[in-house]
Design a protein that fits this description.
The protein is built from seven helices and nine strands, in the order ααβββββαααβββαβα. A hairpin with a 5-residue loop joins strand 3 and strand 4. It has a five-stranded antiparallel beta sheet with strand order 1-2-3-4-5. The protein has a four-stranded mixed beta sheet with strand order 8-7-6-9. It is globular. It is α+β, with helices and mostly antiparallel strands.
């Protein structure tokens, strides 16, 4: 008997409920529900992965890439398998792979994620135009938690976190880490379009007078 996974978190602009509704409507119906939930469990905690719903063509998929890039994509096929696409290999025969299960997805990802997470030369060139205006304009969510006297801030592209005794220190540190990740001057962090998402621990801490 199939059961809903005990734990799942969809790290995206959609709530878990919205995620399920979108996947049911545009991802193969109720019969593929558990496959989408398993995919969310596998990818949502990994740096850089985000869930995309394209209103233009009604497609839903998980995507990995720096900022606005989408280098790797994974979605569910009609029969509940995992279609995996590597945009960096468009001219290669192994560009598309269909995995039967999550272990198959994991095997396909091995050796691809680290490269796909890095910004391409084309993105870096575009980001530099007009004094890094593209980088400054892209919305980036910084997620913050609090523990043992420190705020911890992470952004979706980063493997590492920024720590600070104050919320501002942690968030500004995450912005500077993103600049280094994208080969931008750290001064650009002051003008980046960062939004902050506090978890329960950070929210409780900021409410202390």
């Amino acid at each position: 008997m199939n059961e809903t996974p005990a734990y799942r978190t969809v790290r995206t602009e959609f709530t878990n409920n919205q995620y399920e509704v979108i996947c049911k409507a545009f991802g193969g119906g109720h019969q593929n529900r558990l496959a989408w939930l398993d995919l969310a469990n596998a990818l949502s905690g990994r740096p850089g992965w985000r869930f995309i719903f394209d209103l233009n063509d009604g497609s839903a998929y998980w995507s990995l890439g720096a900022l606005i890039e989408s280098m790797l994509q994974i979605q569910i096929t009609e029969d509940g398998q995992y279609w995996c696409h590597d945009h960096r290999r468009d001219n290669h025969i192994d560009s598309d792979t269909v995995a039967a299960d999550i272990p198959g997805v994991e095997a396909w990802l091995e050796g691809r994620e680290a490269t796909a997470r890095r910004p391409s030369a084309a993105l870096l060139e575009m980001a530099r135009v007009n004094n890094w205006q593209t980088l400054k304009g892209v919305p980036i969510t910084v997620r913050v938690s609090w523990s043992d006297g420190l705020f911890c801030a992470t952004a979706y592209q980063l493997d590492e976190a920024s720590f600070g005794t104050t919320l501002a220190e942690a968030v500004n540190g995450a912005g500077e880490m993103l600049c280094r990740f994208l080969d931008a001057p750290v001064e650009v962090a002051r003008d980046m379009n960062l939004s902050v998402e506090l978890d329960a621990s950070a929210t409780a801490r900021t409410r202390i007078a």
